[in-house]
Design brief:
By secondary structure, the chain is α/β, with parallel strands linked by helices. The chain is built from eight helices and eight strands, in the order βααβαβααββββαβαα. The termini are far apart.
Length: about 190
């Protein structure tokens, strides 16, 4: 099974307030994210983390990585460079890169932490799977993203705080964009 996730921000207390996450503190958030991950992901599954795995965590990355099932691939996010310097990345990740091109059940996808308006394969139905923006619909770029069905936000904030399959990612993004259509209309 292949899974996608982004912007876990493990260990980061401020992200709770910033994104309106339903947790009292970073420890409660970390426990829930790890539990949700392991409830879905099996040992031999592939998980693409599309950036910002942890940030400002008091615990080393290895504590989190050892608790999470699956074969992990990291697409580097803006907050990853800090903890990456201290971790043995080869011991924990199958790959680490700023961008990945994958095929999932015959469907192509470009994975990058930052949403891109153009990507390889987009004219042939390929997906752009990104993170970075969390659940922010107030920025000036939101109407552009909302108008594109092939742009999929892998962030935990819109995906039930758990890794999701490509089909779940498509449905969650469809629903999120539909729920925030008034934001798109107001800005577009």
């Amino acid at each position: 099974m292949i899974w996608y996730t982004s912007d876990l921000h493990l260990g980061h207390a401020n992200v709770i307030r910033h994104c309106g996450r339903p947790f009292a503190d970073a420890d409660e958030m970390d426990t829930a994210l790890i539990k949700n991950w392991n409830a879905k992901v099996h040992r031999n599954d592939t998980v693409y983390i599309v950036g910002d795995f942890l940030f400002r965590a008091k615990k080393p990355a290895e504590v989190y990585l050892s608790a999470l099932k699956g074969k992990k691939h990291l697409v580097i996010g803006n907050h990853d460079r800090y903890w990456m310097k201290k971790a043995d990345l080869g011991a924990w990740f199958e790959s680490v890169s700023p961008m990945l091109f994958v095929t999932d059940s015959g469907r192509s996808a470009t994975l990058c932490h930052y949403p891109m308006m153009s990507w390889p394969g987009m004219s042939r139905g390929g997906y752009m799977i990104y993170g970075h923006i969390h659940n922010n619909t107030g920025a000036d770029y939101w109407p552009l993203i909302a108008a594109r069905d092939q742009m999929l936000n892998a962030g935990v904030d819109i995906n039930g705080f758990a890794p999701v399959t490509l089909d779940e990612l498509i449905e969650n993004n469809r629903r999120f964009k539909e729920e925030h259509a008034c934001t798109t209309d107001a800005n577009g």
